[in-house]
Amino acid sequence: MTLYDVAQRRTLNCVQKKKRRAKNAPWGGAVCLAALLLTAFSPAEGAAFHIKQEADAYIGCEVVLSLGGDEAETPGVSYEWSLAGNVKPIRFGRNGLECRFTPYDTEPVSISVSAIGPAGPLSSASVSLTAKEFTVDISLVKEEPFMLWDPNAKRDVPAEGLIAGEPIRLSLRLIPEYKNRIHCRWTTDAATAIRVGGEEPQVTVSRNEIGDAEVTVVVTDTNGVVLGRGRKSVTVPIARAAAEESARRRSAWKQWLDASSLWEAKKFDEAVSNAAAASEIDPDTLEVAEGLQVLRANYARVERSRKLSAEAESLYKKEKLTDALKTYRRAQVVWALPGIEDSIRSLEAEIDNIRVNRQRAEWLKDTASAYDQEGFFDDALKYYRQTLALMPDEAVTQRAERIEKRLAAIAQARLLAEEGRKLESAGQLLDAVVKYKESLNFNPSEELSTHMKELEETIKERRARAGVLRREAAELQKRNNDAEALLRYRESQALWPDPDLAKRIADLEKTVTVPRLAMRSAEDFGIGTQADAARLFQEAHALYKQGKFREALEIYRKSYAISKDERLAAWIGRVEASLKEYEAVLQANVLIKEGNRLYSEGRAREALAKYRESLAIHRNDEVENFIRFVEENLKKNGPAGNSGGLVTSAR
Fold first, then answer.
1. CA geometry: angle at 149 spanning 148 and 155, to 5°?
2. In this structure, are residues 48 and 82 in contact, taking their beta carbons and an 8 Å threshold?
């Protein structure tokens, strides 16, 4: 038997023993193999060599080792390789000068090789290498941005960030490149759900609320060997309500533009209807709200002009040309409907040319009178003066003087009303009432009169409440509760200032520590005007849009305490219910997350208790289904039978 035969048999026996030992081990267990002896032809003593590694080692990728050195290929020398570690399979090449294998974890792999000559071992070399996991690079797939309506620019603009509830597409790649098929196991945080692709390199998720969507992935090869792990945090800064509000306001603006076009096309009825619908959809856009007011005012003029035109036509049929002309002119002043101008010109042509100057004067007077009757006093005065310049008339002179006085009175009334508003804003309510009364003397106004009466009632209520607080404070002082008494005195003084009370407060402050409790204002007692109620409503609505629901609810209630508006009461009820549900969802999500943690740790029964506790707070079909799944799994497999995904979150 030759030396080559002996080497082959010895190698074969070693390999078969190692294979028998590894056969019953788990698939990914450690493998220790000794390999290939080559025939020695002409022995060479003390052959020198070293082990070369071609490239960095990565889990799941074949590693190539080769022998190098001046005498790595010495004739007559054979090489015996030995490997220890979780590697598989092992292949040799180039007559034993090359060894190939694939590592399956990050544990160190020990490799040694001995040079054997005819007389026995000559020299050896060894090396230890550690395979690395691949770097998992997760990137956000760039897509066309979601467009949100900009109410100021009146156009769609790209959203500055992701929107809650919208799909978020992610893609991963391995660094360095891995050319074989991979399997991905994606997971997310409780508020983020996987929509598409839970096992592929591309995944689509969505987050149902603002915040950071946490996405993790474990990448394995087709045999389940972990190649790498990755994590990505994607910020979702825009709430779903913003997208819904964007669509609403976009729709309202389009309807408003349609209304404007219809008005230009003289389709007045349709224009006002569309404008009203736009304002109902979006009452917050100033251009729509103010535009609707203008359209309604103009529409009233259109209706008035239509009525006057019908009267003028009736007069014309009765051959009362002068009266018909006057009425048409009034219709033209109110609103220039199509055809009125033609009717006026036709009537003017029928009137004797000899009376041109008189007719001109009459036209000016009629026009002025029309403006006067419709309440357009500036225009009326201008036309009366033109009439007087053409033809003196005592009656016209008196009318002009009357309008001048009327305009002066209106201007004075506006000035006094503005002074009253400033005094009211400064808290000088009695002085404000005086100014409002003076304004009403110059120019009666139902709106201002109503506001003044509300303000007088507010003054009465504030005085009454101030008196109650003052009496409460006096009782507290009698019981030696000076701190609480000081607080009540201050509240009374804030509602209705009193010099005597101010002195008492100053005396108390010298000896009493100021209570930490916050002072109540007039609004806290439900005292105020409808204007105060409207202001509070706007403040609350602004907080509501910012997502500060509890703060908004408190101010909504203050507004309702003043206005007693049943629509606001219904809205407060809806906000309270929504807030209660929102807080229940948050509490349930905390318990679901705790249940998921316990389940992941193999503590299924404790997890079930947490899941059931979350259901007591907020019902969730997914949690109920998962509880049934876990219970069935425990019946089949016992406590060690945890398998399956986790519950995402309550919704």
1. 120
2. no
pLDDT band at 18 (very low <50, low <70, confident <90, very high): very low
Phi, psi angles (nearest 5°) of residue 650: -80, 155
> Could you give the C-alpha distances from 258 to 34, 278, 330, 516, in angstroms and in order?
85, 10, 30, 57
228 three-class SS: strand
Residue 80 · residue 34 · CB < 8 Å? yes
What is the spatial distance between Cα 535 and Cα 468, in angstroms, rounded to a whole number?
26
In the predicted structure, residue 383 carries a pLDDT above the cut 60: yes
- The arithmetic mean of pLDDT across residues 107-125, rounded, is 88
pLDDT digits (tens, 9 = 90+) for 195-238: 887 788 999 999 988 999 999 999 999 888 999 999 999 999 99
Q: What is the pLDDT of residue 646?
A: 61
Residue that is written with structure tokens 């002066």 in the block: 408
What is the average pLDDT across 103-118? 90
SS3 646: coil
Prior bond of 499 cis (ω within 30°): no
Residue with tokens 């005065």: 381
Q: Which residue has the tokens 């105060």?
A: 532
Using only C-alpha atoms, what is the Rg of the chain? 46
Closest CA to 414 of 381, 376, 378, 440: 440
- Which part of the chain is CATH 2.60.40.1080? 135-238
**Residue 566 pLDDT > 70:** yes
Q: Match 């509300």 to its residue by tokens.
A: 454
Residue range(s) in the chain whose domain bears CATH number 2.60.40.10:
3-130
- What residues contact residue 470 under an 8 Å CB cut-off, 6+ apart? 488, 489, 492, 501
DSSP lists the bridge partners of residue 205 as 168, 194
The topology (CATH level 3) of 3-130 is Immunoglobulin-like (2.60.40)
Cα 359 to its chain centre, rounded Å, is 67
| Residues 607, 592 contacting (CB under 8 angstroms) | no
Residue carrying the six token digits 């109410």: 151
Provide the residue type at 74 as one letter. Answer: T
The CA-atom distances, in angstroms, between 437 and each of 168, 434, 442, 446 are 63, 5, 9, 12
Query: What mean pLDDT comes out for the span 44-65?
Result: 79
- What DSSP state is assigned to residue 60? T
SS3 labels along 285-304: CHHHHHHHHHHHHHHHHHHH
**CB 498, CB 525: distance < 8 Å:** no
> What are the two backbone dihedrals, phi and then psi, of residue 103, each rounded to the nearest 5 degrees?
-80, 150
Neighbours of 59 (CB within 10 A): 21
- 74-93 pLDDT, tens digit per residue, is 777 888 899 999 888 889 88
The whole-angstrom distance between residue 575's C-alpha and the CA centroid of its chain comes to 18
Among 200-214, 228-242, 388-402, 558-572, name the one with the lowest average pLDDT. Answer: 558-572
Picking from 116, 119, 127, the residue whose alpha carbon sits closest to that of residue 74 is: 116
The torsion defined by the Cα of 520, 521, 526 and 528, in degrees rounded to 10, comes to 170
Confidence (pTM): 0.41
Domain 135-238 falls in which CATH fold? Answer: Immunoglobulin-like (2.60.40)
